[in-house]
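User: Thanks for the earlier help. One more: UPF0250 protein VZ94_18200. Can you show the sequence and predicted structure together?

Assistant: Of course, both are below.
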Amino acid sequence: MSEENALIFPCQFPIKAMGRVDIELDLLVLEIIQKHASIVSPSAVRTRASKKGTYVSVTVTIEATSKQQLDAIYQELTAHPAVLAAL
């Protein structure tokens, strides 16, 4: 990774997860992230439905403290069957 692409911790970092609209994905994603991040404000959570309303994306902005923290969050999110993708 080049020097210009490196993150400097702590930093504000958005985590996005996508899944079907028929589950409460926002609550699931928030629950997973809160296992790894200290405080997540409700105002840090944004949801957006797809054009056809079949899928939903949830973006949660956290104060990331390390690459290991972000890796753990992404591993748990992508391992959950309700999460179709995480960015």
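User: Great, one quick takeaway?

Assistant: The longest strand covers residues 11-20.
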